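User: Hi! I'm working on a homework problem where we have to compare a predicted structure to a textbook description. Could you give me the structure for the chain below?
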Amino acid sequence: MNLHDIREDYSKQELDSLHCHDNPLEQFKIWLNDAMTAKVNEPTAMNIATVDANGRPSSRMVLLKEVNDDGFVFFSNYDSRKGQALAVNPYISITFFWAELERQVRIEGVVEKLDERSSDEYFDSRPYTSRIGAWASEQSQVIADKSVIVKRAAMFGIKHPLHVPRPPHWGGYLVRADKVEFWQGRPSRLHDRIRYRLDGDEWVVERLAP
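Assistant: Happy to help. Predicted structure tokens:
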């Protein structure tokens, strides 16, 4: 297999700033709805990239749980590698890629912890086993083998047979975006790229070279 020969010519749709919403969060909602309507595989899956105290970047896939007027929301263990990185460097980069629609969205911004009430409400809506898992997993820590997690899950299941409170080390993050780019694949690699850039309180819309 020669990786140099693998290529795809995109041609399904095009993107013009004249047809975009003035607010990137509203434009994102339109595209997310398109992805869900098209039954894209894992439409809410996003790659988030963080940088730790030593300047080393890392990225991983998480699920978007909400987009509102303030920004983008996801949940995680605050003590995980991503949580530790965000504690010292609150800047984040997010990428959505919907291959079936030949679309990509890139988001940059600043992260803050979601308020405790919102974190509690979402945690309480999760399945029982997921709530137990949040207690059982010391995320990103080295463990001897899988039995460690199984035993911890059993222990917390006994401790919380009915109501499982939210662990203090687990909760939501809100990403307040200051840059959002919408990418639509086009033929001959002449892709459409429309970027929203926050200037003060106003969004500036710009077309970028592909």
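For your comparison, note the following. The CA atoms of residues 65 and 186 lie 30 Å apart. The chain has a mean pLDDT of 96. Good luck with the assignment!
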